[in-house]
Design brief:
Number of helices: 4
Largest sheet: 8 strands, mixed
Mean pLDDT: 90
Helix content: 10-25%
CATH superfamily: Vaccinia Virus protein VP39
CATH topology: Rossmann fold
CATH architecture: 3-Layer(aba) Sandwich
Oligomer: single chain
Structural class: alpha/beta
Order of helices and strands: HEHEEEHEEEHEEE
CATH class: Alpha Beta
Length: 186
Amino acid sequence: MKPLDMKDIAIIDAFPVYNCERKVLNVGCGDGRIDFHLAIMGYRVHAFDSKPYDTWVDGKNLTFQKADIFEAQNLPSASIVICSQVLEHLKEWKRALPILIGLTEIRLVITIPYRKSFNGSGGVHCNFWDDRASGEFKDIHEFQTLCHPYAVSISKIRTKLKDAKTDKYDYLIIVDKRQDYTRGPQ
């Protein structure tokens, strides 16, 4: 099993700690690295990606499935939904976001690269975000508008220790459905 990196740890740290089932849906799970760790930690994980990986092995508390995010009506909802390093690959990322929110019962955790950090690793990126829109960069704060009425937190995180010496970050976006501003705190 591959070790967790700093981004994986930040994702897990973003999980709610109270009043939450330990049920996770990982959208675009890739090779399943974080999913194996979550299953060992006692989470029930349903992970999917648009292409299967040789590393996928179902186990106790863990199932993998080949599926497309735009066909999410066949996917189970979960207390926690992870979508890490996926939206930068989707031309229709704004169409995917409401699907992700619909699958989420409590908390949605998204990671995407800052600007062109890590561009090219794992496929072609067609979306780039920055702290404000300019040129080819989309404004990261647009997530707050698109995820309204829920609370949204956006922060920058490092992926590896060596990235601290460079301008490489990921954005960590947390959408909490318990904080619905049309109904007040839950």
